[in-house]
Amino acid sequence: MQTAPDMHSTPSAEPAPLTYHHDEINAVHEFKFHESTPRAVNVWLDHMERIYADISTDAQVRLWMDITESGSLPVSYAMNKTYRWMSKLDVHPNARMVFVHKPDMLMYLADQLFRTLRLNHLQTRFFTADHSEAARAWLVER
């Protein structure tokens, strides 16, 4: 995995809040979060802007969000920033997003919440790390 460029910090030796890898074979954008901070959300959204820059409506976006190391992201901050970013998009292609996490009741509740939301273009599922193979299978199914 390559380290994500961090445009939200000074050129210090501060570690990146996440790493990013593009699995070109399965067309999956993989993010591994190292910290649960607004900075990590900002760096993720920087990547998302680049991914969506020239995207078409018939594209299929696949996102692997590994939060096993960081734990849950700052929910209110992430939702607000993501909503603002999404509202600026001209194109909303179909997207699948998997969160891979450690066992946590909060993640179970988040999974249930996302399943009840009617987001026509976005499907989201949460899997514990020991079910990462099932998560990958769900993410790449057509």
Low-confidence stretches: 3-10
Number of strands: 6
Arithmetic mean of pLDDT: 86
Order of helices and strands: EEEHEHEHEH
Secondary-structure-based class equals alpha/beta
The neighbouring-strand order within the major sheet is 1-2-3-4-5-6
Beta-strand content bin: 25-35%
Please give the largest β-sheet. 6 strands, mixed
* Residue share in helix: 25-40%
How many DSSP H or I helices? 4
Question: Rg from C-alpha positions?
Answer: 15 Å
Oligomer: single chain
Shape: globular
| First-to-last CA distance | 25 Å
Topology:
Elements: E1 2-3, E2 18-23, E3 28-33, H1 38-52, E4 60-66, H2 75-87, E5 94-101, H3 105-116, E6 122-128, H4 132-140
Parallel strand pairs: 3-4, 4-5, 5-6
Antiparallel strand pairs: 1-2, 2-3
Helix pairs in contact: 1-2
Structure explained in plain terms:
A hairpin with a 4-residue loop joins strand 2 (18-23) and strand 3. The protein has a 6-stranded mixed β-sheet with strand order 1-2-3-4-5-6, sandwiched between helices. The protein has 4 helices and 6 strands; from the N terminus they run βββαβαβαβα. The model is unreliable at 3-10 (pLDDT under 50). The longest helix has 15 residues, at 38-52. It is an alpha/beta fold.
